[in-house]
Each structure stands twice: as C-alpha cells, then as structure tokens.
C-alpha cells in the first residue's frame, strides 16, 4: 500500500465477541491426537489468528486445521459477518483434508469491517468437536492493482474525453439529438446539459472523434428541434423537455415554464458552436444563422419581472407567472446568465441589474481564509465544485476580473479548498485523500445532493476533480489516474466514469451518468489542454460587448 497513505483503515476496531463460538479468540491449548483446532488463517498473504488489517477486498481466505474435517459441518460453522452482523454470502470450499477456502460471492467491500467466525459446531472427520471457536477480525483496504494497462497521461486524457463524449453522441435522445438528463431518462432531455454536449461536440470534431460535418449536422438537428418543436417562453426554454414532442416536462409543480439558468447554459454552448462552425459552406452558414435566430429571440430583460426589478429571476410559467420567485443571485453557478443577458443584441440588461441583483451590492464577497486559502466570493468553504465549472466552460476566468473578484483566483482557490478539505477528511470517510477527492452535485446512495465541505455525505464524484483540471492540474491528474487505474473496474464504463461512489459503504452508482456531470469533463479537460472552448466563446463579439457592459476587464492573451 506504499504511495497510498489514505488507505490506512478508517473504521474503528470491532470488539471481539464470542458470537456463540464457545470461547475467546486465542487458543493456548495444544491439541492431542485427532483433537480439532484451527492452526492458521491466511488472508491475502497475511497469516495470523486474530486481526487482519488493510486486506484487499478480493483476497482469498484460507483456514488450515490440525485434523481432517467432517464436511457436513463446514458450511454452517465457518462464515463471515459484516459490521452489522449480517451473514456474508460466501461458499466454503473444503479440500477433503485439513483446509477450507472461504470465497465471498461478490468479494468484500473496500474499507469495511468483518468478522470471520469458526463456530463450536465444527467437527473433525473422527467426530471430535473443535477445541475452541474463533472470531477473527478483518478490515479491508482497497485492491490497489492496476485495473487497466498503463498509458501516457496524454493518451489517458484523450481516452477519457472520447469515451465521455459518447454520452452525448451515442447516448443522445434520437429524435431531438439533445442530451438525456441521465442514462435512464428515456425521452427526457436536459436544456443545460445539451449546451454542455454541444460544446463537447466542438471538442470531438477538433480531435477527430467525429467528423466536422457529422458534428455540424448533429448540432443542426438540436437547433432545428429547439426552433420548430420545443416550447419556449419569451425565447427561453424549460429545464426538461420531451425530446420527441418538444413539450415542457415540469421540473416541479410550479416550475413548468422557462428556466433562465438552464437557458444560459444552453446558449453558452450554442454560441461556442456558432464560433466554431465558421465555414462558408451552406451547412455551416445555415447553422450559424439558426443559432443567431434563437439567440436573438431570448428576452433576457423580461426576466427582471418585466423590468420592475433590478435582478434576473430564474423561472417564469405561462400559468403560474413568477410563482417560483427565485432571484438569480451570486455566488453560485449562474454568472454566465448575467454575462449572456448583458450580451444580448436584442434584449439586454444593464450593469445595475448585475451589480444590485447578481452581486447583491457586493454582499456576495467572502474574503475569509479556509485551509490557508482566501476565498474571494461565495459561501464558506466555497460550496460544491460545479460552481467553479458551469459558467466557466466557455467564460475564461484566466485574466478575468471586475469590481468584485479576480475570477481565476476565485475558481482556483475554491478548488484548492475543496481538495484540502478532502485530504483533511474531518469526518473520516473511507478513501478520501490526495488521489481521491472532489465534492460537487451528484447522485448519492439515497438520492441526489450538492456535496460540499459543509454538506459532505462521503460521496466522491469524478467530475469534480476532472472538471477542475485547468485549476489544479497536478491534483486532478492524480485523481484521474486513481479513478481509472485503481477503481476502473468499478467506475469506468461505455460513457466514461460513472457519476459517483462512496468507498465507506461500498456504493457505486453503477451504469449511471448525468449530462451536467459528463459534459464539463470533456470541455474542461480541453480547456486545460488547448483552451479551445474558452477561445471560441470569448471570441464572440456579443460576449465581448456584454462583458464590457458589466465592467469586466479581460487581460490580453487570456
């Protein structure tokens, strides 16, 4: 386990109990003749008779006895109990002489405690009962063998981008071409996640995962569907859409209309595509024109409650109006909404809406230090990491500043605090450390939550560290290697890494991917490697005008 210091067992030692074994866990008596006793236990190369620590979850458990056994008594008297006292499904393989090999059907969980029981009903072939029963404590670590062959870091980054991109290409809803909200969503597509997917398509075309023509055609299918079939509200789209009919699928009882944040994330992607597909041919010219028509139709200023307030509102419904009543205020993932609203050539907002609404007159500032790192904006400890990702897939924080923050400092320091918290691991969760970190919104064993240092449920989401690659390249690369090589048999799938996992409980979100978690992986790794998405979005003349309107400074060359 050298090189992985966080693999040291994190769960407290279990009290060794008799559990009906007719004695304690030590045996000082010497068996006479055919009298039966346990002579040795070997687990994953370790030998002993009481405690086994840092055991690989797939380690073989071998018990040797002083005499041949009565095979009929083996299964009922040699077994494993988990930390809750439940019997672990396993088979006892008896060699017909003095050895039993215990084989858990599904292996053991990582970072878990077990008791290996040799009960007093075990008998020798001669009919002698075992001299004394045993309780052997087992604590697992992690199987640290490589699950896949080693490749160069550059090859690994490309592999992750290409495999993750497949979620938006092969896994897309077939009629609309839009991104399914999650793997199991059927026809339910997501507006913001589709914006991320469109950005991923520009990366895929540039890297040759698909041809430029194929990517252009797919983005055109999405744009045509949005223009001709999807219901819009003052130019904005709902959070969820039926990908076959275009009808709005309510996100909640009162959220059955426009979602301005999701719309912002969508148009971040569409404007990036408009910049990328700059060819003079008919297909690319049409795509640019169609994106422009959608872009100019969004009535951003309407979402100030029709000009009555100096703040943008997240939702509007045709039958419930402003019932959700949720102002979009910083600091969170929604900076991009204000940038786009100010950038609109047809329905822009002014600087005062940004200053009083988003920045709250400066109240979004923080300025305190956490783990010796100053956090310019937002809640203590920074909040979930997607706040440092979603707005910055296209908006380049390097060299970007305004009256409230240097945004490169903001996103880098937010990420460093999240990383430092995981390394510190104040709640003692299994696996947290320098190679296994990242708290953000994701699935958890009993639902979904926005994990952060102040809402830590023991769940790591690969997107958190991987999408932070531009900010913490060394730490993110270490996490990528760990996720792929050490946990790849459980995390890697047809669409890249699964959404989340919990090593304390042994839970893995098997087969599940979520669009808003997969998309940033592709895009932010590319921003780290070449800056392509940043360069495309920041080259947009509307965006440049909007940033200037809001008082942003963009350093040359950033």
Automatic annotation (TrEMBL):
Pfam families documented for this protein: Big_5, Glycoamylase
Transmembrane stretches, start-end: none
Residues covered by the SbsA Ig-like domain: 54-131
Glycoamylase-like domain: residues covered: 326-539
Signal peptide: none
Domain of life from the UniProt record: Bacteria
Family annotation (PROSITE patterns): PROKAR_LIPOPROTEIN
Keywords: Signal
Protein name: Glycoamylase-like domain-containing protein
Native species: Alistipes communis
């Amino acid at each position: 386990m050298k090189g992985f210091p966080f693999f040291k067992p994190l769960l407290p030692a279990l009290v060794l109990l008799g559990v009906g074994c007719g004695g304690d866990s030590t045996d000082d008596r010497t068996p006479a003749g055919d009298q039966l006793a346990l002579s040795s236990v070997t687990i994953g190369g370790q030998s002993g008779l009481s405690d086994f620590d840092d055991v690989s979850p797939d380690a073989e458990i071998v018990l040797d006895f002083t005499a041949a056994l009565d095979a009929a008594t083996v299964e009922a008297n040699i077994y494993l109990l988990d930390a809750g006292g439940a019997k672990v499904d396993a088979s006892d393989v008896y060699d017909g002489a003095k050895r039993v090999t215990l084989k858990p059907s599904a292996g053991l969980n990582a970072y878990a405690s077990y008791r290996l029981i040799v009960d007093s009903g075990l008998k020798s072939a001669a009919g002698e009962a075992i001299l004394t029963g045993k309780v052997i404590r087992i604590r697992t670590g992690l199987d640290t063998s490589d699950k896949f062959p080693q490749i160069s870091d550059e090859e690994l980054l490309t592999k992750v981008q290409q495999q993750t991109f497949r979620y938006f290409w092969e896994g897309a809803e077939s009629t609309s071409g839009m991104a399914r909200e999650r793997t199991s969503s059927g026809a339910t597509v997501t507006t913001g996640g589709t914006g991320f997917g469109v950005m991923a398509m520009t990366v895929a075309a540039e890297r040759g995962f698909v041809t430029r023509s194929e990517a252009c055609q797919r983005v055109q299918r999405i744009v045509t569907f949005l223009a001709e079939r999807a219901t819009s509200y003052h130019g904005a789209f709902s959070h969820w859409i039926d990908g076959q009919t275009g009808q709005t699928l309510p996100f909640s009882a009162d959220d059955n209309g426009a979602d301005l944040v999701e719309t912002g994330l969508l148009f971040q992607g569409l404007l990036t595509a408009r910049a990328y597909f700059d060819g003079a041919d008919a297909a690319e010219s049409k795509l640019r024109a169609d994106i422009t028509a959608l872009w100019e139709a969004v009535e951003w200023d309407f979402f100030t409650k029709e000009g009555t307030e100096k703040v943008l509102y997240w939702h509007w419904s045709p039958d419930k109006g402003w019932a959700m009543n949720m102002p979009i205020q910083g600091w969170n993932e929604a900076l991009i909404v204000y940038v786009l609203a100010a950038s609109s050539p047809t329905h822009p907002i002014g600087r005062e809406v940004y200053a009083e609404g988003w920045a709250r007159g400066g109240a979004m500032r923080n300025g305190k230090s956490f783990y010796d790192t100053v956090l310019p904006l937002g809640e203590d400890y920074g909040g979930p990491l997607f706040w440092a990702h979603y707005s910055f897939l296209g908006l380049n924080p390097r060299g970007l500043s305004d009256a409230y923050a240097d945004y490169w400092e903001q996103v880098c320091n937010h990420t460093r605090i999240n990383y430092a918290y995981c390394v510190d691991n104040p709640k003692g969760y299994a696996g947290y450390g320098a190679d296994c970190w990242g708290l953000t919104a994701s699935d958890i064993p009993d639902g979904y939550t926005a994990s952060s240092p102040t809402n830590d449920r023991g769940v790591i989401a690969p997107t958190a560290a991987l999408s932070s690659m531009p900010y913490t390249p060394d730490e993110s690369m270490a996490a990528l290697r760990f996720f792929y090589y050490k946990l790849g048999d459980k995390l890697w799938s047809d669409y890249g890494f699964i959404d989340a996992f919990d090593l304390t409980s042994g839970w893995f979100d098997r087969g599940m991917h979520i669009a808003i978690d997969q998309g940033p992986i592709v895009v932010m790794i590319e921003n780290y490697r070449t800056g392509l998405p940043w360069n495309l979005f920041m080259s947009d003349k509307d965006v440049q005008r909007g940033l200037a309107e809001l008082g942003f400074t963009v350093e040359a060359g950033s």
